[in-house]
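User: I'm new to structure prediction. If I give you an amino acid sequence, what do you actually give back? Let's try with this one:
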Amino acid sequence: MNRPATFTAILALAIAGAAFAQTGARTPSRLEREVRHELTMLPYYGVFDILEFKVDGDKVTLLGEVTRPTLKTDAESVVKHIEGVEAVDNQIEVLPLSPNDERIRMAVYRAIYRSTVLSRYALQAVPPIHIIVKNGHVRLEGIVATEADRNLAGIRAQGVSGVFSVENKLLVEPRTT
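Assistant: Good question. You get back a string of structure tokens that encode the predicted 3D arrangement of the chain. For your 177 residues, that looks like this:
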């Protein structure tokens, strides 16, 4: 039976596989792996964007929030060209253009990635802690190695001036034994 599943594009295939094993969910299909790969490889996909998707048969629903309208259209374009995709429903939200939100994005980025404990995450091509800012409200998405890292990222984001609220949706990478 082919059930819809939501996957965050920022999760590496190995991490995603481990997370599925931990939760008892099924492993991702070829189509899901290809969609995740194509979204992750988009040239302007960065730390201030989050891309997610659902696959239901041959239909892909794109979800998430981006800072650039071109990223929304690029995501739809690359997914449409994947073999086996017949329909794409692009529900990606383009975040409002706001100088205050842009200031908050940069301040939260510095607060998190300049931390001596969290700076190791900044070394990746697309850092795994994504910072989504909308009208002064911050949401952290992605994956970190430990619960302590998750908590520290949330505390660092809450300490930024002008932030109304912080929703910490960071996942902790499952430990393999």
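You can read the tokens as a compact description of the fold. Here is one thing that stands out. Residues 35 and 79 are 6 Å apart (CA to CA).
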